């Protein structure tokens, strides 16, 4: 196996039969790195993993010293790793950031409980203060309440819209300057692909995803499952393909005639919106007025039930949320 | 480079149809293309003939004739609105034997017949008819098919051609290995060695496509053709959009998915750009248009994975391929994706010329640097890498390597760097010659101003 240039100065001691880490040449290799297929020991893996994240932060100037940063914490593996690594790097490289964990409680009995426990553990383990914002706090409704009011059809619409805004609203409430999320390369690659399938171009710039989105029917169809499977098969065939998709996303030359998202603010809550009312306010309006279908389905003439019985979500405005004050939409 | 339409299936839907403009989910539950049994009793929604509807396109059930007219309409519109064929052109149709190129052959033949007729009945007042020839690239050297099967397949292709009248269409059959070197005896072995040196399965697949295009270019140049017409259809293009994305070729992607591609010495046109593979399959069935698919190589590796992915998407929603194409339309085409040579559009009636006249007359030669192997335009990082290499390159090999895009570098160039020299030595000479002449002129200019160039290290 070719020894990378960085290691050529240190010839690994020849030892028949055992695989040595290609990085340090001292310890036994514990894994084959999916990204590079290098055989690497545990310690070196930690080092390169954290270092690559540090490089991403530095090269893209993601933070400024003194900033208050909310770490979106779901209790899952991605946000747990994010919390750990960010607090380590903050300490190690003196970023000077004021970090805290931000969790969203949708108010679904039995669903969030386990993950919230995990986040509470993270708070203790990594010494990061935890703030939990609930749908109840932000919108006045828990998901359980919503389901009681509207049943199990279209409830995903509410949760999706509310969740997307919840992180942002929660961070604003808690006076954060930035939000970080644990979306990884696979997620971003999936987003790029799904957007192509939907007729949208998602361009990636400085680690943000700019979505050039046409208003149109937006439905969580079966193709999302196909796309995920496709990415898994792709990764098996060529591991770097995930990163190549992201690279493509960074290099798309968008035609200037493609409509750019417009940014305005919601008349009611002041949240960023391209329409008069942001999506959450439209939905809340419906809930509060006992008209739960408001904001669901077609808004053109002929509004009504969808003919094929499938659950559909109509997105009638362009971008409804943005993170870090920029145009864009994390459409995961 | 546009992928050959090897993905079969697909459904019919006019691109302008409001269902596809709205996006996914609007397609009727029955699959498009073939009518489902329950709807088979419907009559044609287009004509008054009262014939039974046998196909669905654009949400309308059509009889066979109307369906054919619908597809021919799309073909003709692509040809005329992109000024693809001038009366003075000699068009070479790339014929793979599959349904898409069979339909392309049929339609271009009909356009030619009509032009011949107008010419003959007009006493030379109308425009002369364009010349039409057909090319078949014989890739059997890379397959394991027995010789007699191959001969039979080629005979089939000849008989397909001879069934079309009027008009004499010359058939050019060229073995793929001819593109490696003309005249030497060991062409086949050399080709196999070249392909064998490529480690990546997808890389091999894509490399063979590049050779296929070169082969067509060679046939065209040697026989005086001025245009190459491919049967690449919407389904093939949709597959290419995804496979290019997945290979990190997001920058170059728009280059291969337009109607016109003038990167080559003989420009390439794609008149079936808006027709789905399933529509074309259906047309061949309805009109018994003979196809010959024995010699088609199925795509493998990532291209195969993408093809089956698109197949699944199509089953779930027949208008998905059109949606993917719409996405690609949001990307900016390159300057070589249109005909911009001075005087090119003079053959058009004056009422149509203004449509093309906003093209910058200065753009007769494009400025993009293209990959040595696949012709992809270089992105900024690839250009940067090339610039850096030009200054530091000690060996020609480094320069050749830097003239390959990142995708070809990864999947086509041999993994072991010391094999690069061998790989380039096996390539047809004119590939590397392009780089040689470019760098020669660059270095001579550099020599002239060498005295005045400050070393990068000299900083006052």
Helical proportion of chain B, percent range:
40-55%
Q: Give the strand line-up of the largest sheet of chain B.
A: 6-5-4-7-9-8
Share of helix among residues of chain A? Answer: 25-40%
Architecture of the largest domain in chain B, according to CATH? 3-Layer(aba) Sandwich
Describe what this molecule looks like in 3D.
- The complex is a heterodimer of chains A (332) and B (460).
- Chain A contains ten helices and twelve strands.
- Chain A is an alpha/beta fold and 332 residues long.
- In chain A, helix 7 packs across helix 8 and helix 7 packs across helix 9.
- Chain A starts with 30 loop residues before the first strand and ends in a 17-residue tail after the last strand.
- In chain A, the strands form five sheets. Chain A has a four-stranded parallel β-sheet with strand order 5-4-3-6, with helices on both faces. In chain A, strands 1-2 form a two-stranded antiparallel ribbon.
- Among the domains of chain A are: 31 residues, no CATH class; 120 residues, Rossmann fold (3-Layer(aba) Sandwich), CATH 3.40.50.620; 72 residues, no CATH class.
- In chain B, strands 6-5-4-7-9-8 form a six-stranded mixed β-sheet, with helices on both faces. Chain B has a three-stranded antiparallel β-sheet with strand order 1-2-3.
- The N and C termini of chain B lie far apart (48 Å).
- Chain B is built from 16 helices and nine strands.
- Chain B has two domains: 263 residues, Rossmann fold, CATH 3.40.50; 71 residues, no CATH class.
- The N terminus of chain B is likely disordered.
- The radius of gyration of chain B is 24 Å and the shape is globular.
- In chain B, helix 4 links the parallel strand 5 and strand 6.
- By secondary structure, chain B is an alpha/beta fold.
- Classes of the chains: A alpha/beta (332), B alpha/beta (460).
- Chain B: Keywords: Cytoplasm, tRNA processing.
- Chain B: It is found in: Cytoplasm.
- Chain B: One of its GO terms (molecular function) is sulfurtransferase activity.
